[in-house]
Design goal:
With 348 residues, this protein is an alpha/beta fold. Helix content is 39%, strand content 15%.
Length: 348
């Protein structure tokens, strides 16, 4: 196909999906080496793409699910108007409508959400189960773009790493102690969250037995989870627990994760971000399918995925209607063992 001069990729709207889209965006970069390849993303995830070396520029979109915000819609259409071609990774009608209204000549995406007439190339959606990153690459294949490896890697600026390190020292982290970052939240729903009491028990074991600095991270929406964990903890030495929930930008969070000896995460955006910055990850999966959203290999395979073999998973529910056995059955001691295995690999 002819190479466009200016190509814009409309990114997914969730952090984890944004990271899983990176292999497909890398495919476009290789397919169109002379083109300008930019990414348009909602404000909540836009900063992630500023850590991607093969993205030329990031366009921050103001529109969201509130379609009646006409001023924001017009501003986004104006920002997209200079592009020759747009690749739509979201399946929504609104993403196709805004690039159509922007006057983008070539509009490529999956034929979904009754938007085929708005696209110049409407690719049939793939059938069958697959990893979400492979789903995005199925669009590339449909467009005739050769696909590469399922690798998502981000470049964390040295200033972000240094700032994160200095901040942990200010909180009492002792140089040389293991840093275990825990992301106890999950935007999808409570069912994806490992039990706060289990998190508290793990923190206590790491702090007392392994002299680790435990760092809680997450969005402001996770503040109540962080508070619940803190309330269940026994007394700890200063510096053994650092609560940064709601206190980091995406770049700052990437810096903290890049400093981690190990990260312990639910199936969440933080899990995907941790793997993409090269941190060893213990990924805890409850109601969701680890075969569809496992962390991508951006760090040499240093990932341990933990699940509990129960009849009802993966149910994909936001709230558990029974006893949350897929998460309660994953004990703190089992997670600790996975953390120690990863720490031991790092020491070799």
């Amino acid at each position: 196909m002819p190479e466009p001069g200016r190509l814009i990729v409309l990114a997914p709207n969730w952090l984890g999906d944004a990271v899983m889209a990176l292999p497909a965006i890398a495919d476009l970069r290789r397919a169109f080496p002379q083109a300008r390849v930019d990414v348009a993303a909602r404000r909540s995830v836009a900063d992630i793409f500023r850590l991607v070396p093969f993205v030329d520029e990031v366009v921050t979109l103001d529109t969201d699910a509130r379609w009646w915000r006409l001023a924001a819609f017009r501003a986004d259409a104006a920002a997209l108007a200079p592009y020759d071609a747009a690749v739509l990774l979201p399946n929504s009608f609104s993403s196709a409508y805004v690039v159509k209204r922007a006057g983008v000549a070539e509009r490529w995406g999956f034929a979904s959400d009754a938007r085929s007439r708005l696209l110049t190339r409407a690719i049939p959606r793939p059938t069958g189960a697959r990893h979400q990153a492979e789903y995005y690459q199925a669009l590339m294949r449909g467009l005739g773009v050769p696909v590469g490896p399922l690798v998502a890697a981000l470049d964390v600026p040295e200033r972000a790493r240094a700032t994160a390190h200095d901040r942990l020292i200010e909180y009492g982290h002792i140089e040389g102690a293991p840093i275990v970052v825990l992301a106890p939240g999950a935007a999808y729903g409570k069912a994806k969250q490992w039990i706060p009491a289990h998190v508290a028990r793990l923190v206590a074991l790491l702090a007392h037995q392994h002299r680790a600095t435990c760092v809680l991270v997450g969005s402001r929406a996770d503040s109540s989870t962080g508070a619940a964990i803190g309330a269940m903890l026994p007394p700890l030495e200063p510096g053994r627990l650092v609560d940064l929930i709601g206190q980091t930008t995406l770049e700052a969070l990437a810096g903290v994760l890049a400093c981690a000896s190990v990260c312990v995460c639910n199936d969440s955006g933080a899990m995907h971000l941790a793997a993409a910055v090269g941190a060893p990850v213990v990924a805890i999966f409850g109601p969701t399918n680890e075969h569809a959203t496992a962390p991508l290999d951006g760090n040499g395979g240093r990932v341990e995925i933990l699940t509990e073999d129960v009849w009802c998973r993966p149910c994909m529910l936001r709230e558990c209607p029974i006893d949350h056995r897929c998460m309660t059955g994953i004990t703190p001691e089992r997670v600790l063992a996975a953390v120690i295995r990863l720490l031991d690999r790092e020491r070799v």
